[in-house]
Amino acid sequence: RHMRTITISGGRVDNIGYAADGRAVVLGPIFKGDLPILEAQIIQASLDRVTIRYVLMNGHKSADLHHILRQRIQERMGEVHVFFESVPLIPRGPNGKFPLVITHVPTERLLAKDALYEHAK
């Protein structure tokens, strides 16, 4: 990297995932546009594996949707394995909402890597 790094200290971070190189990427916009989904969620298991849960609108097929979403994810994250899970409803939290992105990537390791990079400059 040649640019300075920034740290996200607040605001909306429930739409952030991490690319294979550790970059934080905004994933919410992949659902923008005229897609036949009622709601969707991204589960990031690792830097190279994501699952997209979605609720499909009645009467629509998922084949084209899978192709579009895989392409959009890979444009932002690089070569990641994308899996799909059609569900009747995205599970809600106690507040009745669900996070757009759930990541299981240990971000403290990513932040430590950035700190080492900054220290080496």
Verbal overview:
24% of the residues lie in helices and 27% in strands. It is of the alpha/beta class. It has a four-stranded mixed sheet with strand order 5-4-3-6, with helices on one face. Strands 1-2 form a two-stranded antiparallel ribbon. The N and C termini lie close together (11 Å). The model is unreliable at 114-121 (pLDDT under 50).
Task: Please outline the helices and strands.
Blueprint: E1 16-18, E2 24-26, E3 37-46, E4 49-56, H1 63-77, E5 81-86, E6 101-103, H2 107-120
Parallel strand pairs: 3-6, 4-5
Antiparallel strand pairs: 1-2, 3-4
Question: How would you summarize what this structure contains?
Answer:
The chain has 121 residues and is an alpha/beta fold.
Strand order of the largest sheet: 5-4-3-6
Share of residues in helices: 10-25%
What Rg, in angstroms, do the CA atoms define? 16 Å
Number of helices: 2
How far apart the termini lie comes to: 11 Å
Helix vs. strand class: alpha/beta
Please, what is the average pLDDT?
82
N to C succession of SSEs: EEEEHEEH
Globular, elongated, flat, extended or rod-shaped: what is the shape? globular
Contiguous low-pLDDT stretches (5 residues minimum) are 114-121
What's the total number of strands? 6
The largest pleated sheet is described as: 4 strands, mixed
Query: Per DSSP, what share of the residues sits in E-state strands of 2 or more residues?
Result: 25-35%
